[in-house]
Amino acid sequence: MSLLDYFRSSKPNSASLAKERLQILVAHERASRNQPSYLPELQQELLAVIRKYVNVSQDAITVHFDQDGNQETLELNIVLPEDR
Amino acid sequence: MARIIVVTSGKGGVGKTTTSAAIAMGLAKHGHKTAVIDFDVGLRNLDLIMGCERRVVYDLVNVINNEATLNQALIKDKRCENLFILPASQTRDKDALTTEGVEKILEELSKDFKYIVCDSPAGIERGATLAMYFADDAFVVTNPEVSSVRDSDRMLGILSSKSRRAENGEEPIKEYLLLSRYSPERVKLGEMLSVEDVQEILSLHLLGVIPESKSVLNASNSGTPVILDEQSDAGQAYADIVARYLGEDRPHRFIDEKKGGLFSKLFGSK
């Protein structure tokens, strides 16, 4: 390994950093792009209904939409508080 | 029937107008009757890049509003008889462009043109969405830089959902990647995203790489599409792109430092 290489490798490679950031961002944005537009509203309404019975916090409910070929799945996850 | 090509990117300043001018000239020089339309209403610039800014009398919006006929508004290029330019208007009225108006113009042009190149404005507002709405092919111009790649991906999403082909359930728009302002030297140093990186992120078919080149500014200074500068690397890159688009099998150039270096040694870096 030459001296030049040593200095080169000690520098962070900004291109690979850019690629990594983009891959995460693009994957995230593509996932949200394919979601039906009613999803946030659905989440709010579900939260309102559940709150009629149980006092859950705003972030206790997650709505996840997945598309795999022809199959679409809507996954609901509600975390109930420990003390009722 | 004409084939409608949209040149798009989302982000501004990546080389859409340079690309539109170059490929329209390239297609025309291959003998195909080609029209190039500036969709950047309010900020027209294609006329300047094409060098016909002093010959603009009527524009796109005049034709839409029936204030002029299409033939009155089309500017015939002085260098190539197969090429015609339809300039954008300078109106600040954002509603001047209508879907019906654009459709009517494209239909009329389709009768005797082979290719229609739509130069999209930056952003995702009406001019940009209308430029791509009727397209058959999309040339996505991207710089090897984070914001440009992200915006290109965003445009791909819009192309696949908000086009006439998507809405009618027809075969989707064919999307091509044109990677511009590429610097193999900086890629080698790890300072710039490589062609492979960008392709991996966008998963697009690569039509060509346009190297960062002084010839692009020289060409715009003189109002000459850079493809006419046959000695220049950028001009040759666009010539390759047009040939590949027309079905010719040409190996990719300007990707490796070595080739570019040898090239500039032989012909001088332009």
Short account of what is shown:
The complex is a heterodimer of chains A (84) and B (270). Chain A has 84 residues and is of the alpha+beta class.
Structural overview:
The complex is a heterodimer of chains A (84) and B (270). With 84 residues, chain A is an alpha+beta fold. Chain A has a single domain (21-80), classed as Cell division topological specificity factor MinE (Cell Cycle, Chain A). Chain A is 51% helix and 19% strand. Chain A is built from 3 helices and 2 strands, in the order αααββ. Chain A has helices at residues 3-10, 14-33, 39-53; strands at residues 61-68, 71-78. In chain A, strands 1-2 form a two-stranded antiparallel ribbon. In chain A, 4% of the residues are buried. The model of chain A has no long low-confidence stretch (mean pLDDT 80). The N and C termini of chain B lie far apart (38 Å). In chain B, a hairpin with a 6-residue loop joins β3 and β4 (83-86). Chain B is an alpha/beta fold and 270 residues long. Chain B has helices spanning 16-29, 46-50, 60-64, 70-73, 99-112, 126-133, 146-161, 164-167, 184-188, 195-202, 214-222, 233-245, 257-267, and strands at 3-8, 34-38, 75-76, 83-86, 115-119, 137-142, 174-182, 205-211. Chain B is globular. Chain B has an 8-stranded mixed β-sheet, sandwiched between helices. Helices cover 43% and strands 16% of the residues of chain B. The chains are: A alpha+beta (84), B alpha/beta (270). The A-B interface holds A 8, 11, 13-16, 18-19, 21-23, 25-26, 29-30, 33 and B 145-146, 149-150, 153-154, 157, 187, 189-194, 197, 200-202.
